[in-house]
Amino acid sequence: MGRCGNSVWQSPALSDWGLARVGQLVPRGAAIGPALESQTPAVTMTEFRVRVSTGEAFGAGTWDKVSVSIVGTRGETPPLPLDSLGKEFTAGAEEDFKVTAPQDVGPVLLLRVHKAPLDLLRPLVSDAWFCRWLQLTPPQGAPLRFPCYQWLEGAGTLVLQEGTAKISWKDQHPTLKKQRQDELRAKQEAHRWKTYLPGWPRCLDEETVKTLNLNIKYSVAKNTTFYLRGGSAAVELKLKGLLDRKGLWRSLTEMRRVFSFRKTPAVEYVFEHWQEDAFFGYQFLNGLNPVLIRRCRYLPENFPVTDAMVAPVLGPGTSLQAELEKGSIFLVDHGILSGVRTNVVNGQPQFSAAPMTLLYQSPGSGPLLPLAIQLSQTPGPDSPIFLPSDDKWDWLLAKTWVRNAEFSIHEALTHLLHGHLVAEVFSLATLRQLPHCHPLFKSTGLGIGGFSELIQRNMEQLNYSTLCLPEDIRARGVEDIPGYHYRDDGLKIWGIPSSLGTREALIQYVTMVIFTCSAKHSSVSAGQFDLGAWLPNLPPTMQLPPPTSKGQAKPEGFIATLSPVNATCDVVITLWVLSKEPGDRRPLGTYPDEHFVEDAPRQSIAAFQHRLAQISRDIRERNQGLALPYTYLDPPVIENSVSI
């Protein structure tokens, strides 16, 4: 069920003046449609009161002339000017007008809002107006609220329906049926599909963001904050002589000193613990990519781990086979990266690996620990299995290659594809908004070519169950692994109510869309700077190939493998910007646009907000006992939809 009657705003330049279509400007006095042409208007003069609410955003007010036409069951009024002494439609204002209809149009069906520039300003400026709502009070009866909540640019006409939610078969009057059909045609014309790259999900057919209308662009305030935040960080690093420095880091100490300019408690925690096996395992559960880990009941044939290899971690009295049968062994397989093309950074080819990582859930509520890492999908003499018992730098380098694979999968698939491109499909299909995609193409190990290849591969595997959190958790067999805060918090927010038949399927689908575009995106986006600011924990690119033998890794070689200075700066600035919401926040459950006027949906919204508040209290209470609080699914942190 959705709220009807909010049509696409269309200016005369886009209109066929001879056609009275929803959202189109028609010449004054022209016939509106066959359903109304034949009506003989009554001679009774009817006075209406009109209340208009203008948005509070910068530039929301207008100098343009605004009028309304009231469409009823027995006819339609000519445009009735909304005019009073002084300036009307100031930002944040609610203003009252009286208009007199020359005839009785019967019960009100629609309201047409006309906007035209003042004659004096017509050749000079196109003045946009953000209308929140109009309220029409007839001579007898209750006020009728017409939600709008959109920008009206230039001159044109917008058709609004009273705010009661309706499904199509409840629109019995021919005028309402025609209005719904015309609205859908106009929206489909205004929002066309296109294929950006082969194998990618389809997206909105626009060349640049400059051609988007104001309703799907960032606000001026948000856009300004976004660029100022990124610009200030870039200037700081440029003044330090780092942004253009293409060489290697001199040491981990230098790297640490440079990136102390944007500290958060989480960044500090990562720096202190990034080398620890327990933190390495923790990030598969609660890091940026908590969606790959799955329970392992038997070893893959191409990952020949033996009892002797893992005995130091498993301890006495057990075996690898026993732990596999017990369900305490888990696998993270980055096989989708196998053979993917890589990028060129500073004129140098970059390298990638497709590792396999075996992990062990220690008894009780102990940490999830890595048992073994193989850096390719093909075992053999040139692809050794690295172990915690190996030399410190061998083991650390192997884990860092896994973290690089996590970066690539996260940015290309978990974040870009699932968090933005799939979300854009939902948004465009429901004509809501265009998310702003933000791949890190320039300074990463894969680049646009590798990202595209990964997206094409994952699109072939992507299915509906993967996008539904409860089904995904069951499919990966991670229902009971302890300390999995992404799962626990996500399932609370998911919260599908019980129902039957097709309604249940509809509820699940809508919940999946909402969860994907809000909570899921927050979980894989909000922590990017926290977990990626310390480069060795989440390296975006690797400059040397994966090791093919043990005993060769040294501190100098470790640093030489990591990203060059300028590429590091590019990525860290990007992660800083993308992790911080640039104003105009709308946390999950916050709906300043009052599209619904009935008690039932308002009560549902209030109940939802109450439940979110309780979830937030529970999460914050739990976090007090955690060394590293998991905050990314705390409802006040989650945006209503993809917003950055």
Automatic annotation (TrEMBL):
<feature type="domain" description="Lipoxygenase">
    <location>
        <begin position="166"/>
        <end position="644"/>
    </location>
</feature>
<keyword id="KW-0408">Iron</keyword>
<dbReference type="InterPro" id="IPR000907">
    <property type="entry name" value="LipOase"/>
</dbReference>
<keyword id="KW-0106">Calcium</keyword>
<keyword id="KW-0223">Dioxygenase</keyword>
<dbReference type="InterPro" id="IPR036392">
    <property type="entry name" value="PLAT/LH2_dom_sf"/>
</dbReference>
<dbReference type="GO" id="GO:0005506">
    <property type="term" value="F:iron ion binding"/>
</dbReference>
<keyword id="KW-0479">Metal-binding</keyword>
<feature type="binding site">
    <location>
        <position position="61"/>
    </location>
    <ligand>
        <name>Ca(2+)</name>
    </ligand>
</feature>
<feature type="site" description="Essential for stabilizing binding to COTL1">
    <location>
        <position position="151"/>
    </location>
</feature>
<dbReference type="InterPro" id="IPR001024">
    <property type="entry name" value="PLAT/LH2_dom"/>
</dbReference>
<dbReference type="GO" id="GO:0005737">
    <property type="term" value="C:cytoplasm"/>
</dbReference>
<feature type="binding site">
    <location>
        <position position="644"/>
    </location>
    <ligand>
        <name>Fe cation</name>
    </ligand>
</feature>
<feature type="binding site">
    <location>
        <position position="415"/>
    </location>
    <ligand>
        <name>Fe cation</name>
    </ligand>
</feature>
<dbReference type="Pfam" id="PF00305">
    <property type="entry name" value="Lipoxygenase"/>
</dbReference>
<dbReference type="GO" id="GO:0004052">
    <property type="term" value="F:arachidonate 12(S)-lipoxygenase activity"/>
</dbReference>
<keyword id="KW-0963">Cytoplasm</keyword>
<dbReference type="InterPro" id="IPR036226">
    <property type="entry name" value="LipOase_C_sf"/>
</dbReference>
<dbReference type="GO" id="GO:0034440">
    <property type="term" value="P:lipid oxidation"/>
</dbReference>
<keyword id="KW-0443">Lipid metabolism</keyword>
<comment type="pathway">
    <text>Lipid metabolism; hydroperoxy eicosatetraenoic acid biosynthesis.</text>
</comment>
<feature type="binding site">
    <location>
        <position position="420"/>
    </location>
    <ligand>
        <name>Fe cation</name>
    </ligand>
</feature>
<feature type="binding site">
    <location>
        <position position="83"/>
    </location>
    <ligand>
        <name>Ca(2+)</name>
    </ligand>
</feature>
<feature type="binding site">
    <location>
        <position position="521"/>
    </location>
    <ligand>
        <name>Fe cation</name>
    </ligand>
</feature>
<feature type="binding site">
    <location>
        <position position="128"/>
    </location>
    <ligand>
        <name>Ca(2+)</name>
    </ligand>
</feature>
<feature type="binding site">
    <location>
        <position position="127"/>
    </location>
    <ligand>
        <name>Ca(2+)</name>
    </ligand>
</feature>
<keyword id="KW-0560">Oxidoreductase</keyword>
<dbReference type="InterPro" id="IPR013819">
    <property type="entry name" value="LipOase_C"/>
</dbReference>
<feature type="domain" description="PLAT">
    <location>
        <begin position="46"/>
        <end position="166"/>
    </location>
</feature>
<dbReference type="Pfam" id="PF01477">
    <property type="entry name" value="PLAT"/>
</dbReference>
<protein>
    <submittedName>
        <fullName>Arachidonate 15-lipoxygenase type B</fullName>
    </submittedName>
</protein>
<dbReference type="InterPro" id="IPR001885">
    <property type="entry name" value="LipOase_mml"/>
</dbReference>
<dbReference type="GO" id="GO:0019369">
    <property type="term" value="P:arachidonate metabolic process"/>
</dbReference>
<comment type="similarity">
    <text>Belongs to the lipoxygenase family.</text>
</comment>
<dbReference type="InterPro" id="IPR042062">
    <property type="entry name" value="PLAT_LOX_verte"/>
</dbReference>
<feature type="binding site">
    <location>
        <position position="59"/>
    </location>
    <ligand>
        <name>Ca(2+)</name>
    </ligand>
</feature>
<dbReference type="InterPro" id="IPR020833">
    <property type="entry name" value="LipOase_Fe_BS"/>
</dbReference>
